[in-house]
Amino acid sequence: MSTGPTPPSAGGGVVAQRTGGHASKGSVGGKIQVQGSNANITHTINEDERTEFTRHINAVLAGDADIDSRLPFPTDTFEMFDECKDGLVLAKLINDSVPDTIDERVLNIPGRKIKNLNAFHMSENNNIVIESAKGIGCSVVNIGAGDIIEVREHLILGLIWQIIRRGLLGKIDIKLHPELYRLLDEDETLEQFLRLPPEQILLRWFNYHLKAANWPRTVKNFSSDVKDGENYSVLLAQIGPEYGVTRAPLQKQDLHERAEAVLQEADKLGCRKFLTPKSLVAGNPKLNLAFIANLFNNHPALDPITEEEKLEVEDFDAEGEREARVFTLWLNSLDVQPAVVSFFDDLRDGSILLQAYEKVIPGSVNPRHVNKRPAHGGEMSRFKAVENTNYAIELGKQNGFSLVGIQGADITDGQRTLTLGLVWQLMRKDITVTLSSLAQKLGKREITDSEMVRWANDMSRKGGRNSSIRSFKDPSIGSGIFLLDVLNGMKSSYVDYDLVTSGQTDEDAYLNAKLSISIARKLGATIWLVPEDICQVRSRLITTFIGSLMATHERM
Fold first, then answer.
1. What are the boundaries of the region Disordered (predicted)?
2. Mean pLDDT, each 10-residue run in order, the chain (556 residues)
């Protein structure tokens, strides 16, 4: 998205459009200029993306009890952005992409206890949207609740794309599709394959089918390699012969006619979605990625795996996966480059760890001691990687981390427990830094776990509840009630105890845990964990939850 001074008027092609309370300009060559927060800045919105994402929202939210009366949004105006203002459409979209992320009982919905939503109700809903988007791995560095209420279209469109993308790519997972095993190259291990980002796995899938069809071309991107429609024709015919899909589009010479013919073949598979002939020929990378991901999710067309292969897939080591998931989200929220996809593998060369140190403790890393990844891609030599990870261990020791007997080579070798231990201490340091002003008030050097436990118990009592814990390992946390009592102490009447269960069964405990996460996010707290982490009392992750509540309380 480009920003820059407002361009001079493009003659008669620009028509001022007023929609539902904010002005925006007409389209010039498929791009629409919208006003930025500053009078001198405009942002460009891609018209095809706006149209296709609006169409997607209309389709997936149709029939929703709270939203359906507002649908469908017109796909050729900016009305959809105005409709996002109260946070409900975005919250529902998040739950469509990653079900169960938001406890919808916590949303402020007109007609449900509240007649009409005011700005405060909207900003609470949008806190839930922003913090939940973070919790599913979207980058929300540039957007806050206020930007949604002020209808900053380019920011809302960017967030919508990330949410849709997360839903589409989240299903490209060996646990959901063990037959992805078929895509391994000859000398490749399953571990190496699973390091690939989902976009790369999609390209691998596309090329697997092109090769099976004896087609000479390969696809390396979602833009120039697909825009002539030829590769699509072959892919569709390969995965859908029983639906009557053929390579007929290859007979068309005109690119737009061929693109339309390709989409008609996709329609036979029920997958005419996200692309128009115009955006296909233009090679729009987002819309092509969405089209291909949707194709894979509906028609992977890979042979089921054998019992023997199944054992290899099931045996794939899941140790530490829950903590690794949270630590990955946290590292990516620091905006490390490139983003972490495969936690243990991506930390092996130390460069992500050293970036994280610098973000958490600015000025702590001497750039002269850092070996950078090769500019052309490819892996760093083991020698240089171990130099980096040794430096990461040394920095940890300088900051009082407990790293007895750990060497850089352990991280480079992907030792799971030791890697988790180091990253946990770095994340714990981040909590300490965030709470440093509170520590000063209490006359402490830094906030310890026991002080955090005491704070949480005090909050529970302050709200008139009598639950308490002895440590973050306390089994009673698993019912979910204690965290709700802490939230109740932070803001009275914020927890509706009619919704709270006894937490005695697994299902009841899960409902309480899910409720506590959404209420915390409504307050504006950044919560990385999922309900299972609370029910299983993962003490490190509970510590991050309470740390985030303390930081939020300081801002209230």
1. 1-35
2. 33 34 54 68 89 97 95 95 97 97 97 90 97 93 92 95 96 88 89 87 97 97 96 98 97 97 98 96 97 97 83 63 91 90 92 97 96 86 97 96 94 94 96 89 89 97 96 98 98 94 97 98 95 95 96 92
* Residue 235, domain member (yes or no): yes
Widest CA span of the chain, in angstroms?
A: 78
Each as own residue / partner, the long-range contacts of residues 406-412 (CB below 8 Å, 24 or more positions apart, any chain) are 408/350, 411/347, 411/348, 411/350, 411/353, 412/348, 412/349, 412/350, 412/382, 412/385, 412/386
CA triple 547-540-349, angle to 5 deg = 105
Residue 152 inside a domain? The answer is no
| DSSP H or E stretch at residue 35 | strand 31-35
Domain count of the chain?
A: 4
| 407 shares its domain with 458 | no
Q: What is the per-residue DSSP string for 135-188?
A: HTT---TT--HHHHHTT-HHHHHHHHHHHHHHHHHTT--TTT-GGGGGG--TT-
| CA separation for the pair 313, 193 (Å, rounded) | 12
SS3 278: helix
Return the structure tokens found at 403.
């790293």
* Distance spanning both ends of the chain, measured CA to CA: 34
How many residues would you count in the chain?
556
Please tell me whether residues 352 and 479 are part of one structural domain.
no
Please answer whether residues 265 and 245 qualify as being in contact, where contact means their C-beta atoms are separated by less than 8 angstroms.
yes
Residue 142 resides in a domain: no
Same domain? 449 vs 478: yes
What is the torsional sign of CA 65, 69, 70, 76? Answer: positive
Q: How far apart are CA 67 and CA 111, in angstroms?
A: 12
Distance CA 424, CA 54 (A): 40
| Residue 123 covered by a domain | yes
Q: Which domain holds residue 215?
A: 178-314
Domain identity same for 79 and 128: yes
Say whether both 424 and 549 belong to one domain: no
- The reply to whether 299 and 325 lie within a common domain is no
SS (H, E, C) 468-535: CCCCCCCHHHHHCHHHHHHHHHHCCCCCCCCCCCCCCCHHHHHHHHHHHHHHHHHCCCCCCCCHHHHH
Tokens of 462: 């302050």
